[in-house]
Every structure is written in C-alpha cells, then in structure tokens.
C-alpha cells in the first residue's frame, strides 16, 4: 500500500460514534467476527477503537460507564459482505439487533438482510450468489450514505476527494444506488426514503497530501473544523464538514510512533 496509508488500512474508514463503545466492540466481535486491533481512552475521555472486519478496518468511538465522555452519537450505515447472510442475521438478532428486512434473494445477485444494531447503526448484510460471497474488487465493509440530494452529494465527494463513480442505477432519474471508489475503498450512496433517512456520518480518509486535500475540500464547499496539523500518533490530519452534515477527517500518514521507555 502507498506510504501515505498505514499498513492494514484502506483509503477510507468509517467512524461511528455511540454511547456505549465497549458494547459495540463486543457486538462486532460476536456478529461479524471482528478483531480488535486497538483501544484507548482519548483526550475527551471516551473510547477510540480500531477493528478489523474481513479485509477492512472500522474505527469507532464513544462513551460508556465510568467514562467522562458526554458527546452525541453518530451512528452510520454499512454494506457488509459475509459468507453466510442467514447465519450472520441470526447472530445479529440474538445480539440485540432489530430486523428491518429478513434474508432475501435479490435480482442483482446477492442475498441480503438488513438490521439495526442496539447502537443505531444500520447493517446491510449480503452474501453474493455465486462462486464467492463478495463482489470482485469490493471491500468487505463499505460505508453507505442515504441523501436527500444524492447527485449533489456524489458530485461533492468526487470534486473534494477525487472519487470515481463506478456505476449508477437511476431509473426515472432517481438515484437508487451508486458506488464511488476512492483509491482502494468504496462508498455506496442512494436517495433517502422511507426508513432509510440521512445519517450524518464520520470518516477517516487517507490522502497523499493532506494540506492540498484540505484546500480542495474547502473549495468544493466544505467547512473547516480543524486545519492541517501533525499529530502524536503519526498522522498529519485536518477535518471538514461537508454541505450534507458529514464529517471528514483527512490524514497523511507520516510515521509509526515508536514506544518510549
């Protein structure tokens, strides 16, 4: 992988924030066989954790008992590919998730089930109906955005972060599904409707040059929340909020901090 991305990560990583981060970590382990790679208490008094799920990483944060963090939840939606959607769906329900759609074969060649976990995140669980359980070239974990103006959201992500739109399903002009690729990661987008309403989400995006990426995002219409600055954990990072309420932390990996004695 390119040197601006630390080993094991993709360009784009979703970052949900929940009220009980430790419980969500346990949920991910039980339901999706997630591997906990890192956990620490951040400067705001909450948990920051990094989990591996299949070939992808997920960051998450939030509070819990005896923690002084008192922020707001920012749950997200994800499309996740699994070997057996029915078995994963059953594990999710037993772990406290609420079923929104039971396992069903879909015309696009995938068997899917949708659940909402106890922390407000939505999981669109899928098993491809073919030789492999995943679609070739697609990561295990893909963040999913529902937008009231999806065409404008797609245009922003392409202009601000250099995303490439891989395909769009838009009968009668309404975007029912689109996939955007940013280097080796993808994000899915569709129009909001019914139970699938916008969920302002947070992302950690690795870029070759965070200073120029930050300027480009502002030119595309984003609002600054943090100017580029070197961080103790080995990244140079900056933050913006896009016109649709999503938060993007951009970073260029500089080095891996060495432990001190």
What's this model, at a glance?
The protein is α+β, with helices and mostly antiparallel strands.
Keywords, separated by commas or semicolons:
261 residues, alpha+beta, eight-stranded mixed sheet, five-stranded mixed sheet, globular
Total number of helical segments? 4
Shape: globular
| Average pLDDT metric | 94
Order of helices and strands: EEHEEEEHEEEEHEEEEHEEE
Radius of gyration from the CA trace?
Answer: 18 Å
* N-to-C CA distance: 30 Å
User: Uncertain segments of ≥5 residues (pLDDT<50)?
Assistant: none
Assign a percent range to the helix content.
10-25%
Q: How much strand content do the residues show?
A: 35-45%
Spatial sequence of strands, sheet with the most strands: 7-8-9-6-10-13-12-11
- Main sheet attributes: strand count, strand direction, barrel closure: 8 strands, mixed
Structural class: alpha+beta
Number of E-type strands: 17
Report on the structure:
This protein has helices at residues 21-32, 85-94, 150-161, 210-219, and strands spanning 12-14, 17-18, 35-41, 47-53, 56-62, 77-81, 98-106, 110-116, 122-128, 141-147, 164-169, 177-182, 185-191, 202-206, 223-230, 235-241, 247-253. It is of the alpha+beta class and 261 residues long. The strands form three sheets. An eight-stranded mixed beta sheet has the order 7-8-9-6-10-13-12-11, with helices on one face. A hairpin with a 4-residue loop joins strand 15 (223-230) and strand 16 (235-241). The mean pLDDT is 94.
